[in-house]
Design brief:
It is built from 19 helices and 7 strands. The protein is mainly alpha-helical. The strands form 3 sheets. It has a 3-stranded antiparallel beta sheet with strand order 6-3-7. The protein has a two-stranded antiparallel ribbon with strand order 1-2. Strand 1 and strand 2 form a beta hairpin. Helix 2 runs antiparallel to helix 9 and helix 7 runs antiparallel to helix 9. The longest helix is centred in the N-terminal third of the chain and has 34 residues.
């Protein structure tokens, strides 16, 4: 990958795209440090630690949520709306027809996604404001984490301050979406994925580099911390290497095309393969599973002040306590269910079988038509099973492995964050290689 980056910077057009990408990502990170005027950021950061749902959101945004900044919601609303629209395109015929209308249909679906992003951003902002308001205790200088001076500016009406916060949070989410789309249009790679990637890496960088530097300046840094950091890096390299190996693994099904004579020319007679990846569903089953299993934490955390001391929070939530095995079992079942569900959305054996047959192809040893579809379905189910087992292991193994380096490193990389970092890095490398290859072809033609 480093060799690819080195070669990319030698090409003027690609270098320009890379610089645009870096500048737009820099704008996003600056927005993650611009606080909303009037918020008590110290109170907000302490409130995040007491809510599991907010901890997950904070890790994806690179700490922006805990700091009460403009981009506190990050790219989350856009991701959720994209997932919802993608699922609705399968179930609603009108949206399904739009997906088949080419570029015009894509523009309409993108517009629907943006409007849904705005709606979800407002809902999520309301949830964050309520969560903070129910968690943060009042002081002499602030009320629910809001400066008394800001409340005075709104005539002492706290509900107007909440509307002010919701508007700014929603605007920050829409601006983040706009930055992601501009990166995709003018830069390299998928802008939304790169923003998520940057947020996760920023969280890890803060723990591994910024915090030790601050401790060294304060004179509280210990030599044992260096050993812990080195051990964490070694464990991370091993885990990332294993994930990359599985992510690149695929089952290749051979397809042979019969020779056809049309006029004076002969077509076909070629051999190709259908690649089916073990982790074809990517990180989506994990995101769905964690989203559903965190709903009790989110709902009860918002509307129940004493939730943190409840029996569920202390015995089941996050797989901790004597009944933690229930949480682990339900999470694994959800991962399996969503893995097979998402595999059916992405890989349709009947459509592929029909396409192969229409082009005069066949799988050696398998009859065309229905037998081919059944064979592809059987192979897909087997690979999806192994992919679901892999995702289930990823959901628990990294946290357990990182605990050997120290408790402070357990949440440096979330389970979804590890897969996102790997998939985005590999996709970015493929994008650079494809653009370099295009430039080489142009040079050859000239």
């Amino acid at each position: 990958m480093f060799e690819t980056l080195k070669n990319a910077f030698k090409v003027k057009e690609i270098r320009k795209k890379l610089i645009i990408t870096l500048l737009l990502l820099l704008v996003y990170r600056l927005g993650c440090y611009i606080p909303i005027p009037g918020l008590a950021t110290d109170a907000f950061s302490s409130a995040v630690e007491g809510n599991n749902f907010l901890v997950l959101m904070n890790s994806v945004t690179g700490g922006a949520l805990a700091n009460g900044t403009l981009f506190a919601l990050g790219i989350g609303p856009y991701i959720n709306s994209s997932i919802i629209v993608q699922l609705l395109c399968v179930g609603i015929p009108a949206l399904e027809r739009l997906t088949k209308q080419g570029e015009e249909g894509k523009k309409k679906i993108a517009a629907i996604t943006r409007w849904l992003t705005l709606a979800l951003a407002i809902i999520q902002a309301v949830g964050v404001v309520i969560a903070f308001g129910s968690t943060i205790s009042d002081t002499e200088t602030s009320t629910n984490g809001i400066s008394s001076q800001v409340i005075a500016l709104f005539g002492g009406q706290q509900w107007l301050v909440y509307i002010y916060m919701i508007i700014l949070y929603s605007a920050g989410a829409m601006l983040t979406m706009w930055l992601g789309e501009r990166i995709t249009e003018y830069g390299v790679g998928n802008g939304i994925s790169l923003i998520i990637f940057l947020g996760i890496i920023s969280t890890a960088g803060t723990t591994l580099f910024i915090d030790p530097i601050e401790q060294a300046v304060a004179g509280t840094f210990e030599i044992g911390s260096v050993i812990s950091i080195v051990l964490f890096v070694i464990i991370a390299v091993v885990i990332f290497g294993a994930i990359v190996a599985v992510d690149l693994a695929e089952r290749r099904i051979p397809v042979q095309y019969a020779k056809q004579v049309k006029g004076r020319k002969m077509y076909g007679g070629q051999s190709t393969v259908i690649p089916i990846k073990i982790s074809g569903s990517g990180v989506m089953p994990l995101i769905f599973a964690f989203a559903i299993i965190s709903l009790p934490d989110l709902i009860m955390g918002l509307f129940w002040d004493g939730y943190s001391s409840s029996w569920y929070a202390q015995n089941i939530s996050n797989g901790q306590g004597p009944w933690g095995w229930v949480y682990i079992l339900v999470l694994c079942l959800l991962i399996f269910a969503f893995s097979f569900f998402y595999a059916q959305i992405q890989f349709n054996p009947e459509d592929i079988s029909k396409s192969i047959q229409q082009n005069g192809g066949f799988i050696p040893g398998i009859r065309p038509g229905r037998p081919t579809a059944d064979y592809l379905k059987k192979i897909s189910n087997r690979i999806t099973l192994f992919g679901a087992i892999f995702l289930s292991l990823i959901a628990f193994v990294p946290s357990f492995a990182f605990s050997f380096a120290g408790d402070q490193y357990v949440n440096v990389f979330s389970t979804t964050g590890i897969l996102i970092v790997v998939s985005v890095a590999l996709e970015f490398d493929k994008q650079l290689q494809s653009q370099l290859m295009m430039k080489n072809y142009k040079g050859f033609l000239k």
